[in-house]
């Protein structure tokens, strides 16, 4: 006879449909590379739209203003124009002879060098020529000077140089002062400061060399006994704390997810830590993914325990319920 207050057994979980399992497994395999490609394409399109294209337009304008030989009919003497073959008393103004080159007239009545006109005419491949001398020269510069391989190489090198000089400037005293003033102003703006702080955390994590050098990864019982937390060993702690504990202690960083360079620094007894078979990078992946990404050796050991595949004498890498001596820092 069942007890009137007995808790009913939870319903048995139905196995996942094979088709659904296969679809989810396929998504799990395809999404990481696809998302990586999409992110890189988005970054490339953003850089092209907001950096390369404006710089290319500015360079084209400079070339058109200062690197184009566009003339008017009045800049040539009458002798520069050949006589009309049908009426020798008139001049054929479709071409003109300069001091060292010949010129061709464009649709707007201006003149460009014959080699420029011929090059653009070849590019048009029988289609109508541009309606102005400026547009003729724009096509000429695009095909000669502003070719994609030249633009990407030049502006890529220029961008790296600017970033390098900016980094050197901000590392100097006056540059650091201006940067601090700029960030102070940003932090006074109600909405902007929240976005800026979040973005800065990500960029600092990706591009800034950390001042902390972690020696190894351990597990500590934090914030209370029975709750195990991954921690990074940063070094030996203070002498006074070690004297009060009456045994060796060390400093560890308790990272927060998903930004492992923020967290809490605590001092623990070495005997109350557990060395983990994890590299620093693997521990970072574990914290950043909020525990989703586990190192292969830890997943394999857990799977063996669950499946009962481990032999009777095999070592079980479970965290001990009683403290044991940790390694030296």
Automatic annotation (TrEMBL):
Mark out the compositionally biased spans (Basic and acidic residues): 81-93
Biased-composition ranges for Polar residues?
Answer: 318-329
Q: Which UniProt keywords apply?
A: Membrane, Transmembrane, Transmembrane helix
Where are the membrane-spanning stretches? 22-45, 150-171
Q: Where is region (Disordered) located?
A: 77-96, 309-329
Q: Cross-referenced InterPro entries, in alphabetical order?
A: COV1-like
Superkingdom:
Bacteria
What name appears for this protein in its UniProt entry? Answer: DUF502 domain-containing protein
């Amino acid at each position: 006879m069942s007890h009137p207050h007995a808790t009913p057994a939870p319903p048995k979980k139905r196995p996942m449909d094979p088709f659904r399992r296969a679809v989810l497994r396929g998504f799990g395999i395809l999404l990481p590379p696809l998302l990586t490609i999409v992110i890189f394409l988005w970054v490339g399109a953003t850089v092209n739209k907001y950096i390369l294209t404006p710089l290319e337009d500015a360079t084209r304008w400079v070339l058109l203003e200062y690197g184009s030989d566009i003339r008017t009919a009045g800049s040539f003497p009458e002798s520069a124009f050949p006589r009309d073959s049908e009426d020798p008393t008139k001049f054929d103004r479709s071409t003109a002879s300069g001091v060292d080159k010949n010129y061709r007239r464009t649709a707007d009545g201006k003149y460009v060098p014959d080699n420029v006109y011929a090059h653009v005419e070849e590019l048009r491949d029988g289609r109508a020529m541009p309606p102005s001398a400026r547009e003729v020269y724009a096509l000429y510069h695009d095909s000669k000077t502003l070719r994609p391989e030249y633009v990407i190489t030049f502006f890529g090198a220029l961008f790296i140089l600017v970033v390098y000089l900016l980094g050197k400037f901000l590392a100097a005293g006056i540059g650091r002062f201006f940067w601090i003033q700029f960030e102070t102003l940003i932090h006074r703006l109600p909405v902007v400061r929240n976005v800026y702080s979040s973005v800065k955390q990500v960029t600092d994590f990706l591009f800034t060399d950390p001042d902390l050098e972690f020696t190894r990864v351990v597990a500590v019982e934090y914030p209370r006994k029975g709750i195990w937390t991954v921690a990074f060993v940063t070094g030996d702690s203070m002498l006074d704390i070690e004297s009060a504990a009456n045994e060796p202690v060390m400093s560890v960083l308790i990272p927060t997810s998903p930004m492992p360079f923020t967290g809490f620094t605590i001092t623990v007894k070495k005997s109350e830590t557990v060395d983990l078979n994890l590299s620093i990078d693997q521990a970072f992946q574990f914290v950043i993914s909020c525990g989703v990404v586990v190192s292969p050796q830890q997943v394999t050991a857990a799977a063996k325990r669950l499946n009962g595949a481990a032999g009777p004498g095999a070592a079980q890498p479970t965290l001990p319920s009683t403290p044991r001596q940790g390694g030296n820092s």
